[in-house]
Amino acid sequence: MDFSVYFFSANDDVDAGERYRFVLDVARFADTHGFRALWTPERHFQEFGGSFPSPAVLSAALATVTERIDLRAGSVVLPHHHPVRVAEEWALVDQLSGGRVGLCLATGWHKNDFVFFPQNYDTRREYTFEHLETLRRLWRGDRVMFPGPDGQPLPVVTYPRPTTDELPLWLVHSTNPRTWTQAGQQGTNVLTLLDNWSRLAANIERYREARAAAGLDPSGGTVTVGLHTYVTADDDEARRTVEKPVKAYLSSFLTQRGTDAAVGGSSAALSEQEQDVLVEAAFEDTFRQRSLLGSPERCRAVVSRLADIGVTEVACLIDFGLPFPTVMRALPALDELRASFAADGGVPASAGGGDLSWYYRR
């Protein structure tokens, strides 16, 4: 089981410079302790995750302070971009990082976001899957035709050239099981959240069957699952520490959903009381069953269960509202959990020594 670090950010009341210093500090720790990847999202026009409008820009910065760890977009909302720009920007990050890039592609769902290419909103899913192969061709260095002025087609080869011919790709999954089938058919990996254990197991099986039907190794491909993460000595201590920020995180998400419903002309927005009830229930379910929040024993059981149903990577969502020093102090415990699942002959458990005194001496 691989462990990666997933940023999304619900700390909307902190200084932006402090937030980005925190991201760089976590990156340094993860890079020297055997974590597989750093995930940075693409978010627009919302406080919820609004520190991340460009994963390519942030990953370029991360490339300068890391040496080993993969740098992944989690995700690029492809209908907001021309595929040529995606290929160019991420090839640059690939060069800066020495070939450590990976991209998760998303279709987008917030109507407000589609000030970028509004014509792509209704066909956003088709656009994403159509240009998945376009990105692969551009990455390989193929000459690809695109419409130019006056409708004349123009041939494009992108530069700089990346370090390899194959672009590691994920598809993000939310609620549509067809995404798992399409990911299997097209040979991509999958990034998802754990909303229901039975559904996740069924979707992974669907993904493996689709890979086999496409002539691919059914056991290949990475299934990455994102989980809220705070590993500490005691479950009760963890609950006291995370309850308020996790509830605020969930509330922000539901508020954003309500805003999207209003923009779309729907009357499905929740009342404040309904939202409070949902947040309370969601927190209990998240804490008890769908997170790495708690003692090492509790978290180890969750990871083992994920491995049993075919998950191959855990993306640890660490910036959901906790104070940054609290997150930093918990990283060695998370690293110990990671090391307990490391394959024989893998990265040493504490390549960086587990000492965080450098952080507090800054």
From TrEMBL:
* Organism superkingdom: Bacteria
What InterPro entries does UniProt report for this protein, alphabetically? Bact_Lucif_Oxidored, Biosynth_lucif-like_mOase_dom, Luciferase-like_dom, Luciferase-like_sf
Annotated GO molecular function terms are: monooxygenase activity; oxidoreductase activity, acting on paired donors, with incorporation or reduction of molecular oxygen
Luciferase-like domain sequence ranges:
1-312
Q: What are the entry keywords?
A: Monooxygenase, Oxidoreductase
Looking at the UniProt record for this protein, which Gene Ontology cellular component terms does it annotate, in alphabetical order?
A: cytosol
Record-linked PANTHER family = BLR5498 PROTEIN, LUCIFERASE-LIKE MONOOXYGENASE
The protein's name is: Siderophore biosynthesis protein
User: Source organism lineage?
Assistant: Bacteria, Bacillati, Actinomycetota, Actinomycetes, Micromonosporales
